[in-house]
Amino acid sequence: MTPLLALDPAYWQVTTLKGILALVVVPTTAAIIAFVFLFKFVSFMHNRLGPMEAGPHGSLQLLAEAGRFLQKEDLAPEQADKRIFRWAPIVVMVATFLIYVVIPAGPNAVIEDLPGGIYYVLAIASLSVLGILMAGWASANKYALLGALRAAGQLIAYELPMVLAVLGVVIQAGTINMQGIVAAQMGDGAEIFGLPIIGNPYILTQFVGMLIFITAIQAELSQTPFDMPVAESEIVGGYMVEYTGTRFLLFFLAEFSSAFAFAAIAATLFLGGWALPHAWGIPYGAMHVLGPFVLLAKTMAFALIIFWVRFTFPRLREDQLQKFAWKVLIPVALANIMLTAVLKVVF
Q1: What b/e sequence results for 177-191 when a residue is b if at least 16 CB atoms lie within 10 Å of its CB, and e otherwise?
Q2: CB–CB of 77/243 below 8 Å?
Q3: How far apart are CA 285 and CA 270, in angstroms?
Q4: Which of 2, 67, 114, 207 has the greatest number of CB atoms lying within 10 Å of its CB?
Q5: Residue 109: its pLDDT value, please?
Q6: Is the pLDDT of residue 119 over 70?
Q7: Cα separations (Å) of 36 from 61, 304, 305?
């Protein structure tokens, strides 16, 4: 029993505490991703220092950027549907908050341990496209509308291979609960090739599924090479082109918070999440403290892949993006599911 449960708080108290925790965690993760990868990692790839003036090694640059956006005037186009225009970034941000609900960071460190956690994540992830369509349509701008339509087509095309990639993990783990997937990889009895020393991380047995999942994440986040919805050289800034100040900042927070959330989900599905191999003999109680740091390390490893691709590859054309999803990723994902099912039955 955790200290919190020992106090026997009321339901509304627990819910309030979880809500406050989410309000702290989501912008914090966005700040971590933005500083480490957007400011420093890309600077390293370009052989430069990046921001260095605000705080030690530029560590306070994000606060300066946030202050700059908060001071800007909140404008809307004259012909815009102003109510929908203002709600759009909030819808996108709420969808991001809801993803964090089921990500486990320890034995009990999860806001809500849903029985069908992984498919809850996949369902919630599709909600962000509603906010994007709202932003594009309500802006009364042809570039914004075109960017929103591109985003909708892209998300529809790449959500299917994402679901199929997860299905391979679900078949192997025998559960759709996030904690259950963690236990299947790192719990008692988890081993590969008869060796329990590393548990059974699905990055080895579901390597193809992992590649498909990471690719689909890249498209879900509209990151290069799948950044057609916000392509500056083609549609200025896509569905965000008319947004300023705080509302643009919400889109920025949602993008980087989602990047962290999807990387954490990938770490849970393919690297055992917060857990370390049972064979290492680490006391279960110690993982209440170590778990969040273990998950953070694994999440940053996947985030490194996501942003390395973003800063390395050129943008695809729209037809190339659709062909890659429907003619490559989906057939490969289906083949991976068939092979996983056969091996699950045989072994």
Answers
A1: bbbbbbbbbbbeebe
A2: no
A3: 23
A4: 114
A5: 80
A6: yes
A7: 12, 9, 13
